[in-house]
Specification:
The complex is a heterodimer of chains A (126) and B (154). Chain A is mainly β. Chain A is 3% helix and 40% strand. In chain A, the strands form two sheets. A four-stranded mixed β-sheet of chain A has the order 1-7-5-4, with no helix packed on it. In chain A, strand 8 and strand 9 (106-112) form a beta hairpin. Chain B has one domain (14-141): Sandwich (Immunoglobulin-like). Helix content of chain B is 10%, strand content 34%. Chain B has one helix and nine strands. Strand 6 (72-76) of chain A pairs antiparallel with strand 2 (51-55) of chain B.
Chain lengths: 126, 154
């Protein structure tokens, strides 16, 4: 067990080849008007957030605001890695109207559907 | 086994969350270097926020990941040298009528207790909630701080 535990993960600044990420947990809801996506990224604020839209894929990257704590580590359950997750979008979403809000480490993405796709009543004329 | 938290698999199956935290608990049992810090956490409770604990010569610092909560929903208390964090995250009303695609986030009550290896000054404890991380700084009492002892040779 000890041999496996000896490998210390390198801090993000020293990694050159690729960066390891942690997958943030999300809740996704759909209403008639659109989708709402909540992603938990504690330690990330607005400045560390990067949202990229490519085709029908949206990539969310959250970089932690580093606030190093001095002293000896007694217990570690948090990850030091940044967050990353990719989502495939429903074509019904109007990508121009996507909005994002970041509050206390939680990102809320609102993805409205295009007008013509929304459920609509069709009145029957006599 | 590494020191980082197990990432939850991307499944929207309610039962899976509990298996992940059982796995977390078993992982933690084997992390023997941290034995001096006794910790009670509830197995299969569903939601156990991740904690980091640091110690320097003057303070203990406990950081808990609690994203998307309000300050009023979090409760911090110190009793007999044990720091307790608890609270409840209520489901948001606006989503009650929506169709749910994925629920990976935990809701409901949580509780974590950390037993500190040295006494702290309860009246000087500070807590800050920023970017979804609750940081609690507990200053050690004077007796608990490391001291230099002069050795006299006669």
């Amino acid at each position: 067990m000890k041999a496996i535990m000896q490998a210390e993960p390198k801090p993000a600044s020293e990694r050159t080849e690729y960066q390891e990420f942690v997958v943030p947990v999300v809740n996704i809801f759909e209403t008639g008007d659109g989708y709402a996506l909540e992603a938990e990224m504690p330690g990330v604020n607005k400045d560390g957030l990067e949202i990229k839209l490519e085709g029908n894929e949206i990539t969310v990257i959250g970089r932690r605001a580093t606030d190093p704590v001095n002293g000896e580590l007694l217990l570690r359950e948090r990850s030091a890695a940044d967050y990353r997750r990719v989502f495939e979008l429903d074509p019904a979403i109007d990508t121009n109207k996507i909005s994002a809000k970041m509050e206390q480490g939680m990102l809320t993405l609102t993805l409205p559907k295009s007008e013509r796709v929304k459920p609509r009543k069709i009145t029957v004329s006599d | 086994m590494n020191l980082t938290r197990y990432q939850r698999p991307e499944l929207a199956w309610p039962g899976f969350g509990r298996l992940s935290s059982l796995r977390d608990e078993l992982d933690r049992l084997f992390e023997s270097p941290w034995i001096e810090l006794a910790r009670t956490s509830q197995l299969l409770s569903g939601w156990t926020p991740a904690l980091d604990v640091h110690e320097d010569k003057d303070n203990f610092v406990v950081q808990a990941e609690l994203p998307g909560m309000k300050r009023e929903e979090i409760d911090v208390s110190l009793h007999d040298g044990a720091l307790s964090l608890s609270g409840e995250r209520k489901t948001e009303k606006k989503y009650e009528e929506a169709e749910v695609y994925r629920t990976e986030r935990f809701f409901g009550k949580f509780q974590r207790t950390v037993t500190l290896p040295a006494p702290v000054a309860a009246d000087k404890v500070k807590a800050q909630y920023k970017d979804g991380v609750l940081t609690i700084t507990l200053p050690k009492t004077e007796e608990a701080k490391p001291k230099q002892i002069d050795v006299n040779v006669n």
